[in-house]
Design brief:
This protein has 19 helices and 11 strands. It is α/β, with parallel strands linked by helices. Helix 12 crosses helix 14. The mean pLDDT is 96.
Length: 513
């Protein structure tokens, strides 16, 4: 069983196709792992045991029948996956990590979930997140924080810390996340996993509960670059239900991940996204990654994107403005929690006020207030309008940078995982964790984070981020796969093999006796 849960999705797919193992065995192994360690990690909010095993059994039956039934199975059929609880699913609750949606069941599947079902990938359950994806640590979930498998006293990143922790803890070989300002990539960096934000519009957002519609993007969480490419090819493609969906999204992602060659490519170091303000161990691992790419035949050049210094400020005006609008529908009238005022007249306005006061957490309220203010009469042009102008300048900076380099590179996050509770009382310090990831969302370009090694100061994972022009996601997979191979050769295997052993339910029971 240990071999199964530590196998990559690509390896599991090969074993399933060769009938070396059954889909039920693979799915049950991961369900057993969840039962053993998730009490300590808290990556999941809901476990989908019966449905996951039923789908796995269907895959096994199709393979047993052979012929067209077996031939028509997707390459990843029978490989289990976890889904961030911001993405709606039939048959499972979708809470967005909020009390206001506690126990709510969607009447429809998100497009990406439909594609997982069509590929017959067993869905293990829904993963924890910062409430409505608002946070960088998964401490803002209404259902309690998720813990980093490398150190249970530390954060797993956010908002998609549950998906990253599930993959890092070997509870799932693959997961889906959403990335609005780094919520796939930053958790990837601090948990030693791979996280990808595809080009905006390359993966349908239909069925992802919106925080900031012009920034949100669903993407893969995995343990290898190839696995991420395999998953993005499953979930990607045009969707008529999403008005922002690209009609010509990136293709050839898996082929690029298997190419294994960066000779002659130009890799651009973004001068504004490393150096001062970055933890010494994070910077050291980043510099080692540069040397490895150079040794593989890539040319390393330095580029400047001067307007990135304004990205954080622009983002924290645009994102809360869009969030305040998107979250207006959670009003206690149509669905979800309804709280009644304790005194006075029972008007819709007062029910709405009581519901939102009881249902939303502090961080959500903070961003709604900020966004409503930025959109208010008299301030719109000064704040939201100005932020959108900065966004255009950032997009132009990236255009100029990509004229000099095929792919850009930076550390994913300025530090390794900080301790739970360390930054809860300082929202501005928390926001700074996304300084390197936010620009990609503002520009709509794809970004990939992969582990760059362990920082010397604390022995915790650091990450390196690759960025490519819009629709050129394949470049990320090509460069990322080569860098991953070089790093693993240096480490003597996958970085997650160096993670400490997690306490299990069985060991905890023995200790309590």
């Amino acid at each position: 069983m240990t071999e199964l849960i530590k196998s990559s999705a690509a390896d599991l797919a090969a074993k399933l196709a060769a009938k070396e193992v059954s889909a039920v065995e693979v799915t049950q192994a991961h369900l057993d792992r969840i039962a053993a360690v998730d009490g300590a990690v808290h990556a999941f909010l809901h476990i989908n045991t019966d449905e996951a095993l039923a789908v796995a059994a269907e895959v096994d039956a199709a393979r047993a029948r052979g012929g067209a039934d077996a031939e028509n199975l997707h390459e990843l059929a029978g490989v289990p996956i976890a889904v961030k609880d911001l993405i709606v699913t039939i048959g499972q609750p979708t809470t967005a990590g909020s009390k206001i949606l506690e126990g709510w069941h969607s009447p429809y599947d998100a497009t990406v979930v439909k594609k997982l079902r069509a590929a017959r990938m067993p869905i293990l359950g829904k993963t924890n997140l910062d409430e409505f994806a608002m946070g960088s640590s998964t401490e803002h979930s209404a259902f309690g924080p998720t813990h980093n498998p490398w150190d249970l006293d530390r954060i797993p990143g956010g908002s998609g810390g549950g998906s990253a922790a599930a993959v890092a803890a070997f509870e799932a070989p693959l997961a889906l996340g959403t990335d609005t300002g780094g919520s796939i990539r930053q958790p990837g960096a601090v948990t030693g996993t791979v996280g990808v934000k595809p080009t905006y519009g390359a993966v349908s957002r239909y069925g992802a509960i919106a925080m900031a519609s012009s920034l949100d993007q669903i993407g893969p969480v995995s343990r290898t670059v190839l696995d991420a490419a395999l998953l993005q090819e499953v979930i990607g493609g045009h969707d008529p239900f999403d008005s922002t969906s690209l009609t010509d999204p990136s293709t050839g992602l898996v082929a690029a991940a298997r190419l294994g060659n960066v000779k002659g490519m130009k890799i651009g170091i973004i001068s504004e996204l490393h150096g001062e303000g970055y933890q010494a161990g994070v910077e050291a691992r980043f510099n080692e990654s540069l040397e490895l790419l150079r040794s593989a035949g890539a040319e390393i050049v330095e580029v400047s994107c001067p307007n990135l210094t304004y990205a954080l400020g622009a983002y924290y005006l645009i994102m809360p403005s869009e969030a305040s609008s998107n979250l207006a529908k959670f009003d206690g009238v149509r669905f979800g929690l309804r709280a009644l005022p304790t005194d006075g007249p029972m008007t819709i306005e007062r029910v709405m006020g009581a519901t939102r006061a009881a249902g939303f957490g502090d961080e959500v309220k903070r961003r709604i207030i900020l966004g409503t203010y930025a959109l208010s009469a008299g301030y719109y042009d000064a704040y939201y309008g100005s932020a959108q102008k900065v966004r255009t300048l950032i997009q132009r900076d990236f255009d100029a940078a990509f004229a000099q380099a095929d792919v850009l590179i930076s550390p994913t996050a300025p530090t390794t995982a900080f301790k739970l509770g360390e930054k809860l009382d300082d929202p501005l310090a928390m926001y700074l964790n996304d300084v390197a990831t936010i620009p990609a969302n503002l520009a709509g370009i794809p970004g990939l984070s992969l582990p760059s090694g362990l920082a010397d100061e604390d022995g915790l994972p650091a990450g390196v981020q690759l960025l490519a022009p819009a629709r050129q996601d394949a470049r990320l997979y090509r460069v990322g796969a080569v860098l991953e191979s070089l790093l693993e050769e240096q480490w003597g295997g996958p970085l997650l093999n160096k993670a400490p052993q997690l306490p299990t339910a069985a060991s905890n029971a023995k200790e309590s006796k």
